[in-house]
Design a protein that fits this description.
Its EC number is 1.1.1.49. By secondary structure, the protein is α+β, with helices and mostly antiparallel strands. 34% of the residues lie in helices and 21% in strands. The longest helix is centred in the N-terminal third of the chain and has 26 residues. The termini are far apart.
């Protein structure tokens, strides 16, 4: 009916399509095929609001416009990358929708995977939307099949108490999945995708952890590794965790940060909402921050085998308490693939430091 009744006779017509883009590869291809019969790819804008977030849009500028990142951003210096989404509340009456899809379809297969592409892609030939999306597709096609022992699923205790959730549901509300990119830049670097509901905090961030310092004369390993963290929400920020001298008479090391907190640095600038920005891009005809059909297919090819096995009950969701970090097995998995957690250091946004 949109095709029949709403097409502009002059000028342009653009159709914004919201997720979910299917439930697996077959249903996504069916949907894409139906849309393709009605509209051209240039008219279709598959929207993923994470691509409209300020820090996500800063990723390519940060990576490719700063000289000191260029030689560091590879397997020689980076040990692991975490892309994390955490909510401190449960389904709260939306269990009917959520239970049909689960945390992987709802968050990881789309939002977090899009962020991974921007973290891992090569420099595009230009800022043309097609050149950027070409590089994202190359990353997706280089991702290896997911290993069984690099998946941890969970369901928070109390999920089944939501009256909108079917009785006896085994749908995961938490998942940690390790993705591995088989190319020259990232071979051997685990990309740890973590998402969950009813956890101990609300945040979304990218955490790039660097390797240990060789010939460590200051015992930096005791303080923790260098990390570059991009906080997507809340309190947008980018900060680098560094080992520095503890102020005072003693020659001892401690961990601190170089911090760009948007709320403090850009006090007079209103950061637009993600949908606000993406809808403006739609009006402008800029498809850079929208998902192309071959990109969508490549994303589903990664996750469909795992999702089908979960749907058949071949993976068990571990029960975890509300307000926790999730199943302990998830932390054990991240440690096993190389992540070293820093104990005793907590980043506090400068705006909160002033209040303290």
């Amino acid at each position: 009916m949109i095709k029949k009744c709403c097409m502009n006779k002059r000028g342009w017509t653009r159709v914004v399509v919201e997720k979910p883009f299917g439930k697996d590869l077959a249903s996504s291809e069916e949907l894409s095929g139906q849309l393709g019969q009605l509209f051209t790819e240039e008219q279709i804008y598959r929207i993923d609001h994470y691509l409209g977030k300020e820090i996500v849009q800063n990723l390519l500028v940060m990576r490719f416009a700063n000289r000191f990142f260029l030689p560091l951003w590879n397997r020689d210096n980076i040990d692991n990358v975490q892309i994390v989404f955490k909510e401190d509340f449960g389904t709260e009456g939306r269990g009917g929708y959520f239970d049909e899809y689960g945390i992987i379809r709802d968050i990881i297969q789309n939002h977090l995977l899009q962020v991974l592409c921007l973290v891992a892609m090569e420099k595009p030939v230009s800022l043309s939307p097609e050149h950027i999306r070409d590089e994202k597709v190359k990353v997706l096609r280089a991702i290896e099949p997911i290993k069984d022992d690099e998946v941890v699923l969970g369901q928070y205790d109390g999920y089944l108490n939501d009256p909108t959730v079917p009785k006896g549901s085994t749908t995961p509300t938490f998942a940690t999945i390790v993705l591995r990119i088989h190319n020259e830049r990232w071979d051997g670097v685990p990309f740890i995708m973590k998402a969950g509901k009813a956890l101990d905090s609300r945040k979304a961030e990218i955490r790039v952890q660097f390797k240990d310092v060789p010939g460590d004369i200051y015992r930096c390993q005791k303080q923790g590794r260098n990390e570059f963290v991009m906080r997507l929400q809340p309190s947008e920020a980018m900060y680098m965790k560094l080992t520095v001298k503890q102020p005072g008479l003693e020659m001892s090391a401690t961990q601190s940060e170089l911090d760009l907190s948007y709320r403090q640095r850009y006090q007079d600038i209103v950061i637009p909402e993600a949908y606000e920005r993406l809808l403006l891009d739609t009006i402008r005809g800029d498809q850079q921050h929208f998902v192309r059909r071959d990109e969508l297919r490549a994303a589903w090819e990664i996750f469909t085998p795992l999702l089908h096995r979960i749907d058949r009950g071949e993976f068990k969701s571990l029960i975890y308490p509300e307000g926790s970090r999730g199943p302990p097995e998830a932390d054990q998995l991240t440690e096993r693939v190389g992540y070293v957690r820093t104990h005793g250091y907590i980043w506090i946004p400068p705006s909160l430091k002033a209040e303290l």
